DNA sequence: CCAATATTG
DNA sequence: GGGAACAATATTGGA
């Protein structure tokens, strides 16, 4: 029999330091568990042991150190993050059916020694796996030691038997003990003989074989005089060290090595644990379906190709009476899959030629109740074909997002795994090759059938949970209608001035080239200015400037740092300007030019509806929510976003202080509400209260500090960051916050309450019932918990504001339609909506826009929106 | 693929 | 005793 014995502590440690930051949704660090399991599985695969045993230290003083109190170990404690992973590692091992072994007062290596000795006595072979070189003394007989070492992220495994050890070290493994007794080991707190180092120790062993041999021949001429004195003085220390270095191979361990139970996996427990740890690839490895835990696997579906038009229409007619019609509709609209009972009907565009548009039109004519996944892309495509898609009653991606907005993605295979424990194949119906008649269509058909089957199962579960969590209105009255609005906005796009954009870019280029040259001159040599690493070296080494801050990897060279040292050398302001200009050039000028549609010359962003944890939208390809505005030069870019012609204008309306108004409303703070009701400048009003002066006597500095606190409050303030922000001491900032909270006691109470309810419920929610789970609030880790608390304070505010503008968007769009106006929404930037309007509708549209925004929700601190019109975004703001 | 840096609300 | 502001996306350089 072959037994593998693993030093659990040593391997966990290695894994912990080898893999960076890995946490699951509970906020539990998982890097060590992960690395440990990866190592375990790899070794089991390669070594194929009959039995596996994992040994752990039981912390505190170990047996040997107790005996030698003077040499008490000052072992470095494990970091909290690693300790936190110990229990779950043991649980996983238990679930795996791996024998686990620990004994109070003994280190893992004593257990390894004992088990390997017993195995050896029974004639079994034993592989000891550890990262600790000391354990090499165990090599011999049937015992080999596999040394695991990690260098530069590369893990290597080296197996030693007696021969391999001799070859490398030139003596027998057991003599490692003698060696240590002589030379000591500082990392293990073994003193050895003071003054004897590795060289002398090796020579002594070479000459006399053992420690005892050395002392028996202490007068031998081969021992130099100095060494002899040291050895004589250190004799007791050497003997103690010998004892300390000896792994105890006779531990009173209650483990029958001959009758170890076979490894018996508890699939249910293992599945649950691995799910909790989010180790999906390990779940896969064991082919754990989770069947026994929850839902059954998805049923097999028949697939049927639909190839003639009549058949297609008949199918859709027959589906008209269905309660729900599950459909896979890819963005390219190159194929469609419809589920009817246990049959997945698949239609490929190329089978229908010109009739395909008629089929799509019929499908989306509003007579079928369609359940789709990620419908926005398809809706946008349909709109761009001049259709008016109707009948979408559910989108599983959006539903899953509402149920947990913090997931990293919501593609169908992922949801299928989460909701049905089903593995879905990759499917890319948007890839023309995949839908081509020529190749691989069998597989495509099967895959799409599985997808549509999963869609049905996910729908059933998700729709139910939306109800249970009280998100019906949020889902059906805000998010689902918004899907259509966003698709329309994306399809509409925004007109731009490519020539002016290029001209702007050329202007930047001239200046960038100029700066580059000067910077090279200042630095007395060329380097890559864009590389923070190289820049840091130039500034802080070559030029010897004082480095005020560091990052994990080196010098920090960000704006704050550079501004602080701007006076010290003329290169610094040039770098600051260089940074600003290259940012504008690469991200905005080049980035935007790249995404101008060749079809209509406009820019069509993609609004992501299932990304942010708070409920906000985001914008990608390109991101039109971070077009510069704060600096004059950057703001110039907004002149490039324009109304398409002289007969149109852009109308830009933004909410005034929406987040603070939401805070006032949610917290029901009388004073803050009053300030807003009176239409006061909230930062000035806050200053008047905090400083106890009349409103007229508030200085700009006072207002500015209070503005910073108002912002800070929304983010979950700390005295440290506020101090940094407004440039006072941490103590002053702390007192300032206190005064602020006394001024707005309702706010203070809200901040306290939300943390508590968040902790009790496990989540926080917006006024419209949008949720965000916050397991961090229960974390024992201060940083983690503090983050949870700030998020608990911020999410209801940011999220409610997001809900409100979403409502406004749906209403604005519906109202424009209802009133028969040509104006259309084209952009949203969190608290700002932008319309493209015919000039003759300008006044009407501006009025409509502000009205719908302000009336989107009745708050105690009333919503205020202000609109402005102009030819470009620059002019409209 | 991540870290650093920049841009926005 | 330290830690240390909320939410995003794009570009660049470098392991």
UniProtKB/TrEMBL annotation:
Its EC number is 2.7.7.7. SUPFAM superfamilies: 5' to 3' exonuclease, C-terminal subdomain, DNA/RNA polymerases, PIN domain-like, Ribonuclease H-like. Keywords: DNA damage, DNA repair, DNA replication, DNA-binding, DNA-directed DNA polymerase, Exonuclease, Hydrolase, Nuclease, Nucleotidyltransferase, Transferase. In addition to polymerase activity, this DNA polymerase exhibits 5'-3' exonuclease activity. SMART domains: 53EXOc (SM00475), HhH2 (SM00279), POLAc (SM00482). This is DNA polymerase I. Belongs to the DNA polymerase type-A family. It comes from Butyricicoccus faecihominis. Single-chain monomer with multiple functions. It catalyses: DNA(n) + a 2'-deoxyribonucleoside 5'-triphosphate = DNA(n+1) + diphosphate. Residues 634-841 form the DNA-directed DNA polymerase family A palm domain. Residues 1-263 form the 5'-3' exonuclease domain. NCBIfam families: pola, PRK05755.1.
């Amino acid at each position: 029999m072959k037994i593998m014995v693993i030093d659990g502590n040593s391997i966990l440690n290695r894994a912990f330091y080898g893999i960076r930051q890995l946490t699951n949704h509970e906020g539990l660090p998982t890097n060590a568990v992960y690395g440990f399991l990866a190592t375990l599985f790899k070794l089991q695969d390669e070594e194929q042991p009959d039995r596996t045993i994992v040994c752990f230290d039981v912390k505190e003083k170990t047996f040997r150190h107790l005996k030698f109190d003077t040499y008490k170990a000052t072992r470095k404690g494990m970091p909290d993050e690693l300790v936190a992973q110990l229990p779950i590692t043991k649980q996983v091992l238990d679930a795996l059916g791996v024998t686990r072994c620990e004994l109070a007062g003994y280190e893992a290596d004593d257990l390894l020694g004992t088990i390997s000795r017993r195995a050896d006595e029974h004639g079994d072979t034993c592989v000891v796996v550890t990262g600790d070189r000391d354990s090499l003394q165990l090599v011999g007989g049937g015992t080999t030691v596999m040394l695991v070492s990690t260098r530069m992220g590369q893990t290597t495994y080296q197996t030693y038997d007696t021969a391999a050890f001799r070859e490398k070290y030139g003596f027998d493994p057991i003599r490692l003990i003698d060696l240590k007794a002589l030379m000591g080991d500082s990392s293990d707190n073994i003193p050895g003989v003071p003054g004897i180092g590795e060289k002398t120790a090796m020579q002594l062993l070479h000459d006399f074989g053992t420690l005892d041999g050395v002392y028996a021949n202490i007068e031998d001429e081969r021992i130099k005089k100095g060494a002899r004195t040291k050895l004589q003085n250190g004799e007791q220390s050497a003997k103690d060290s010998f004892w300390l270095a000896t792994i105890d191979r006779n531990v009173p361990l209650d483990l029958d090595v001959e009758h170890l139970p076979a490894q018996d996996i508890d699939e249910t427990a293992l599945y649950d644990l691995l799910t909790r740890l989010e180790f999906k690839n390990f779940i896969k490895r064991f082919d754990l379906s989770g069947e026994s835990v929850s839902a059954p696997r998805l049923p097999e579906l028949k697939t049927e190709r639909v190839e003639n038009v009549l058949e297609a229409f008949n199918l859709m007619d027959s589906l008209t009476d269905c309660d729900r019609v599950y459909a896979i509709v890819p963005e390219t609209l190159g194929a469609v899959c419809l589920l009817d009972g246990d049959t997945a009907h698949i239609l490929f565009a190329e089978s229908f030629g010109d009739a395909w548009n008629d089929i799509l039109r019929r499908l989306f004519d509003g007579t079928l109740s369609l359940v789709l996944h990620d419908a926005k892309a398809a809706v946008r495509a349909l709109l761009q074909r001049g259709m008016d898609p109707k009948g979408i009653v559910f989108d599983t991606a959006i539903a899953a997002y509402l149920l947990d907005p913090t997931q990293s993605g919501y593609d169908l295979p992922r949801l299928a795994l989460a909701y049905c424990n089903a593995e879905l194949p990759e499917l890319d119906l948007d890839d023309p090759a995949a839908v081509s008649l020529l190749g691989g269509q069998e597989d495509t058909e099967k895959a799409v059938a599985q997808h549509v089957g999963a869609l049905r199962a996910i729908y059933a579960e998700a729709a139910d949970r939306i109800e249970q969590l009280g998100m019906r209105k949020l889902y059906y009255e805000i998010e689902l209608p918004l899907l259509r609005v966003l698709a329309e906005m994306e399809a509409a796009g925004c007109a731009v001035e490519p020539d002016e954009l290029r001209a702007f870019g050329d202007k930047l280029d001239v200046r960038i080239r100029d700066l580059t040259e000067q910077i090279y001159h200042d630095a007395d040599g060329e380097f890559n200015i864009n590389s923070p690493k190289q820049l840091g070296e130039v500034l802080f080494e070559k030029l010897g400037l004082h480095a005020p801050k560091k990052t994990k990897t080196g010098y920090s060279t960000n704006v704050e740092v550079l501004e602080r040292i701007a006076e010290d050398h003329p290169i610094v302001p040039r770098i600051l300007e260089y940074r600003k200009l290259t940012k504008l050039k690469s991200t905005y000028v080049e980035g935007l030019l790249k995404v101008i549609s060749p079809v209509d010359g406009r820019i069509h962003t993609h609004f992501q509806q299932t990304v942010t944890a708070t409920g906000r939208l985001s914008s990608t390809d390109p991101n039109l929510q971070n077009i510069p505005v704060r600096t004059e030069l950057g703001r110039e870019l907004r002149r490039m976003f324009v109304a398409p012609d002289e007969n149109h204008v852009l109308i830009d309306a933004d909410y005034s202080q929406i987040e603070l108004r939401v805070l006032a409303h949610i917290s029901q703070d009388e004073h803050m509400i009053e300030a807003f009701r009176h239409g006061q400048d909230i930062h000035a009003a806050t200053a008047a209260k905090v400083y106890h002066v009349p409103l007229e006597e508030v200085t700009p500095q006072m207002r500015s500090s209070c503005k910073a606190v108002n912002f800070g409050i929304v983010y979950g303030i700390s005295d440290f960051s506020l101090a940094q922000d407004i440039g006072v001491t941490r103590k002053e900032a702390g007192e300032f916050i206190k005064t602020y909270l006394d001024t707005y006691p309702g706010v203070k109470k809200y901040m306290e309450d939300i943390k508590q309810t968040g902790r009790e419920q496990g989540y926080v929610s917006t006024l419209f019932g949008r949720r965000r789970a916050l397991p961090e609030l229960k974390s024992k880790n201060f940083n983690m918990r503090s983050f949870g608390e700030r998020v608990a304070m911020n999410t209801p505010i940011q999220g409610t504001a997001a809900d409100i503008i979403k409502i406004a968007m749906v209403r604005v769009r519906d109202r424009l339609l209802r009133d028969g106006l040509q104006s259309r929404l084209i952009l949203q930037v969190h608290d700002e909506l932008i319309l493209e309007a015919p000039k003759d509708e300008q006044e009407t549209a501006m009025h409509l826009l502000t009205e719908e925004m302000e009336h989107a929700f009745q708050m105690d601190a009333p919503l205020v929106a202000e609109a402005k019109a102009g030819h470009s975004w620059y002019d409209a703001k």
